[in-house]
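hi!! sorry for the late reply, been swamped w classes. u asked for the two structures so here they r. pasted raw, havent cleaned anything up. first the sequence of the first protein and right below it the tokens
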Amino acid sequence: MKTIGIIGSGISGLCAAAVLARKGQQVLVFEKNDQLGGRMRQFEAHGFTFDMGPSWYWMPDVFERFYEQFGYSSSDFYELKKLDPGFQIITSDGETLKIPAGWEELLALFEQVETGAADKLRDFMHEAEYKYNVGVKKLIYKPGLSLLELINADTVSGMFRLQVFSSFSKHVRRYFKNEKLIALMEFPVLFLGAMPENTPALYSLMNYAGLKQGTFYPMGGFKKVIDALVKICREQGVVFKPGEEISGIEKLNRSQISLTGSNGKQQVDGLIAAADYHHVESKLLREKDRNYNEAYWDKKTFAPSSLIFYIGLNCQLEKLEHHNLFFDADFARHATEIYQQPQWPDDPLFYVCCPSKTDPAVAPAGKENLFILMPIAPGLIDEPVLREAYYYKLMDRLESYTGMEIRKNIEYMKSYCVKDFITDYHSYKGNAYGLANTLTQTANLKPKIKNNRIPNFYYCGQLTVPGPGVPPSIVSGQVAATELLKKLNVNV
């Protein structure tokens, strides 16, 4: 048995811990915050329960594949509810597109918006399903250490169909002309990735996940997922050390590593860093032990940060669904203000999650729970006066849409932005989602999962393979753990 340290208890760290402990290793998880879960933490205030981060449950098969390793399914931990509509989009002309859960209803909606679009959607989804089956079920479980990993029967025979080096934007426009449908297909890229023209068409697999598989919600909130992973970890013998921040990593010899924490030093035989990759490299490691220098990180394209408002209302908003995308502004302009000309947006798109529409446990009876998110460029100046200015901007539009005086009915409000992401997660430039999935930052072109200078040291999470999002983070932890086990000569 080897002693393995894991820095960070976000979803990738928990998945890594469970896999390692299942193979007989002694696993210690160090978490700087008092609460486990990283960005998937939860807090309660005035009778409201707020998920702090992820709110979209896509790719349920990735969750199930992980649980099955331990003899479980999601239903053992929480009720997973499929949303119908999955979400709605509020457009610039005041129209609302409700995205139905049923496939035939979705085809009818596309045809209603654009003549011939139903047949185009069938063709689009046929290709997207192929990418999903190859990409999500096979390729994303590769560690990204060698190009040879990408050469197999599926990738060789389907290289052109995978469209790794084709533009997502051009791909979508081959099928659809209507700007509303284009915005619908491109929104996962804007919120989680990069400019659509710089994103590989491979990521149309996200459209398959969101539109064909559907959008789900774990009753009780996303902390139910963290609770499930913590339970699995504890059953495997994982030891958690919340409130213990690691401040230094030092190579002792070829097989041992010393960790300096707030409670002293800990010697381990292997290490997985599930904390922010840049923070680990720049603050915890000596310069000679780093994979990358500051110039490397400065050139990378990061996914957005976010300005978030957690709001508890003493009334209900009839016009909102569980997920609401306010695309009543210029999509391209806001994307440019995030990725190409970083600045606080002039007329932003934003997202409103209202989980109390689905889950009565997250708000008192007759009241509403709101999570309002505006994507912004990482690294922006974050001051109270700016948060307040955008609070009024977003509320003006939300009140206009709902026809209600929301501000007068607020019982609780908390804002969260760049400074908070840095304080809570040591997030590079306060990014919220990790490294963008651009053409030059895909698969093996992402920061490496293995430390080149210290044996038995690996990275996982949203700044390495396979990328940002909850399902990729689940995969990332498993991949890092598997590679470390191989390094330790443990049968995997």
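now the second protein. again sequence first, tokens right under
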Amino acid sequence: MTADDLQATCALSATIHQAYPEDDAVFAERLRLYPAGCHVYAAAESVAAYVLSHPWREFDAPPLNSLLGELPAPPSTYYIHDLALAPYARGTGAAASIVRKLADRAREAGLHTMSLVAVNGSAGFWRRQGFEQTQVPALAEKLRSYRDEGVRFMVRML
């Protein structure tokens, strides 16, 4: 992902994540803080999928639509902030391929877990990728901010 991709990425996010809106500044900041974890996948000259990910703190998740300021040093998990595919890209195996590449990146960074907040009924997909729901009482309020009965904090051991 480059700065030139941000407009198309934010537009795809606004279409896919209408219930979980995030300001364009969130995307720009993630790209600035950790460009190695931000990717777009193109099909027919348009953004078909994107991922925002970065090192983070284990058993923690940034609040929805929030700026980080900086990444933790040292990090203790690899956090997948957002993985989204346009409807026509779903079912192609692209998402599973992206998750495998992120796991490789996490291992290269010396991290032993990946974590995320699953929304919009996606927990089944994440379970198939090796993630397990993890109860973290300290995250309860942040998770309620998603206003999604099915929201799950999930962790994958590497």
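hope this helps!! also noticed smth abt the second:
The CA atoms of residues 14 and 21 lie 7 Å apart.
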